[in-house]
Amino acid sequence: MAKAAVIGSGIGGIAAAIRLAVKGYEVTVFEANATFGGKMTQFTLPGGYRFDAGPSLFTLPHLVDELFSLAGRNPQQYFRYQKLPVVTQYFWPDGTQLTAYANAQDFAQEAEQKLKVRKEHLLRHLQKVARLYHATADTFLHKSLHRVGTYLSSDVLKTLPALPELGLMTTMHAANAQAFEDPRLVQLLDRYATYNGSDPYQAPGTLNLIPHLEFNIGAFYPEGGIYAIAKSLVKLAEELGVKFRYQEPVLEIVISEKKAVAVKTPKGDFPAEVVVSNMDIVPTYRKLIPTQPAPKKTLNQPRSSSALIFYWGIARAFPELDLHNIFFSQDYWQEFEHIFKKNTVADDPTVYVNITSKLSPADAPAGHENWFVMVNVPHNSGQDWGKLIQQTRQSVLKKVSKVLGTDVEQLITTERVWDPKGIEADTSSFAGALYGSSSNNRMAAFLRHPNFSGKIKGLYFVGGSVHPGGGIPLCLLSAKIMGDLVPKVPTTVSA
């Protein structure tokens, strides 16, 4: 059998391994850590609190189901999930609370009651977003932007009429502020820039398509938490014959005559006809193929934001909170100015709280909750993270305690912290940037590294630092694009 080597077992690498196995390759995944998942791992803290370490939002579940279907399996025998009736609970400094229902009609009704917006106006906006998404997704998300064939595809015919409405020449914030009067609704829509680590005051209006995923399709929760996604896919991969070699980092991609021919690990060389890197694109070039010409314009793109995460065991239940909760800052512009211009954290950051024990009671002791508390922060560029962690922790506690009317710090029974330096060390994400490069300019999507090497035959790339971007759905799509590019193993028929 033709052999394939996958470097890294993040969600993109696992999905790549499955697609290659379905194509007939003998696949081996090399992982530097002791287990699979990349950022999608889990852990427990003393007292019986389970946490998903990284991603917390799950959209477009059909992209996971598709992998089981490709392998001829019934997805429900491996992986189950439920659609959330409520996507997010929002809290503003002025005391406004809004329930963002997954159903567009219900969300628009709630927004009309709580914010200065007409229901029909918001529904028309969401219908427009849906129309633009369906007109463009097949071209910009499901195919390589670096192949001529993409632009000769019939999908382009439905994309072209949508281009003038995509907001390419304006920013997310400018487009939202023009569409809606209420600054709270504008802030709610602006926050979707953070879904790929960008700044709504710089990122193009194109990113305003992201809310379509939640309000027109829905948000979902996997049984067992986000970690269940990686766990179920690894099970499928192993059934397909994929081998996972843990604590065996790849030291080099061996190149011979402009072709990837093997990967080198501490245990020796592993020959392969296909090599797929799920490692961040920057260390892939700098560490694994340092003698090869690097695409400097791509690698030098501004990094995305990172995250500062506090994992807290909380000795009380809060019925006013849901699975996903947002506590907004007073000055959103100032918050992003600090992240992307000043490379620090504002005194009044927006706080995201994810509580999986709301839907998985076993994730916390009875009457307690497991709080995943995240603040968007700059990528690591030498900041004093010890100082920033303490300052941000106090800002978070002050904000959340005020909204909830209780001293949250007194309820913390156990704690762990993950900062950009730790994210970089644990996941090889360059500078701790969660999404590779940011999308803070109109050409950012086209400057992401392609899913293949134009100079090294047999070398491919998946994951959040390459096209089409970061987050669970886009990482899965990066593997899909890669799979479409890799030739199927020829079937030999004996006489």
Describe what this molecule looks like in 3D:
It comes from Rufibacter roseus. Belongs to the carotenoid/retinoid oxidoreductase family. Residues 11-480 form the Amine oxidase domain. Pfam families: Amino_oxidase. The chain has helices at residues 11-22, 62-70, 104-114, 119-140, 148-151, 155-159, 172-179, 183-190, 211-217, 227-239, 281-288, 296-299, 332-340, 385-404, 420-427, 444-447, 472-485; strands at 3-7, 26-31, 42-45, 49-52, 81-83, 86-91, 97-101, 220-222, 243-246, 252-255, 260-265, 268-271, 274-277, 306-314, 324-327, 351-354, 369-377, 412-418, 459-461. It is of the alpha/beta class and 495 residues long. The protein has 2 domains: 3-39 and 60-81 and 223-300 and 437-485, FAD/NAD(P)-binding domain; 82-121 and 170-222 and 303-427, Polyamine Oxidase, Chain A, domain 2, CATH 3.90.660.50. The protein has a 7-stranded mixed β-sheet. It has a 5-stranded parallel β-sheet with strand order 9-2-1-13-19, with helices on one face.
Report the biggest beta sheet as strand number plus sense, adding barrel if it closes.
7 strands, mixed
> Span between N and C termini?
19 Å
CATH class of the largest domain: Alpha Beta
Question: What would you call the structural class?
Answer: alpha/beta
CATH topology of the largest domain: Polyamine Oxidase, Chain A, domain 2
Number of domains: 2
Average pLDDT number: 96
Residues in helices, as a percent range: 25-40%
Number of helices: 17
Low-confidence stretches: none
Provide the gyration radius in Å.
22 Å
* Reported CATH architecture of the largest domain: Alpha-Beta Complex
Number of strands: 19
Share in β-strands: 15-25%
Judging from the principal axes of the Cα atoms, what is the shape?
A: globular
Give the neighbour order of strands across the main sheet. Answer: 7-6-15-16-17-14-18
